[in-house]
Amino acid sequence: MQIVQGATVIVLNAIYEGDFCGFSYGFRPGRGPHDALDALCTAIETRHVNWIIDADIQNFFGAVSQPWLVRFLEHRIGDKRIIRLIQKWLKAGVLEDGVVAADDRGTGQGSVISPLLGNIYLHYALDLWAKRWRQREVSGGMIIVRYADDVVVGFEREDDARRFLTRCARDWRSSS
Questions:
Q1: pTM (whole model) above 0.85
Q2: What is the mean pLDDT of residues 46-58?
Q3: Which of 45, 47, 122, 164 has its CA 20 to 30 A from that of 73?
């Protein structure tokens, strides 16, 4: 299974790498944690950043909505065989103490494809939302750096930071 998942990751990376936002760093080719830290340091040093939100999405890989993830995949992937294969991996469940537990949430932590599926989910659920927020709602400056399920957002103005935090928390709570 790891070989097939690895091959699927290569194909999906070729499709999604051009779509992902520049501020997304986790588990992407040529983008490691040091690159994310460098980008964050540079942004803080060169932009007007006075307020910072540092967030870790609690139990992200275990809480991903599989139906939404499949919808996100279908938005970009036209091959139904790939979609069905990923759905089978998502539904496979986890073996603990000799018992298989299947759930309709999560990406199968520890699987080869899980980090990419997490990036795809966060691309649609957080990155594009934050990018649109920055374009439409921010009155001062805003920076964002995401590494997997950890995100740092910096703002020039306190009111922008507070509105972002309130809206983000509300939208994420309602989607889970």
A1: yes
A2: 94
A3: 164
